[in-house]
Amino acid sequence: MKTREIVTSAQILRLEDDGILRATAFPVHMSLAYAQEVVRATIDLAGGKPRPVLVDIRAQKTVDRAAREYFAGAEAAQGHCALALLVDSPVSKAIGNFFLALSQAPVPRKLFTDEEDAMRWLRGFLR
């Protein structure tokens, strides 16, 4: 499989040879419009097959409420079967877990501070 890449206003997304989609956030405030753009790119890269997704959000500034709600919805889940979010500190992880607990997404989601731990978890969702 050839690596494919899409650059959005908020993230760069790549579908790697291992079948895992990797996204790296830019230092932006994630709005609903940006979230919708990212979801469209994710669905496009997934090519009709939901993929495990690693999103490195360490550089991202904030995520507004509308974007968080959209990311937790059914439309956003079309491109992924599991979502690992990479954060930069245990404090960020604790705050992120609070927000994840507030919304029930249709796919498994988990926060990590270690990329290799996140990748091990995501590999369990490869089909």
Automatic annotation (TrEMBL):
Top-level taxon of the source organism: Bacteria
Occurrences of domain DUF7793 (ranges): 16-125
Pfam family, one: DUF7793
Name listed for the protein in its UniProt record: DUF7793 domain-containing protein
Organism listed in the record: Sorangium cellulosum (Polyangium cellulosum)
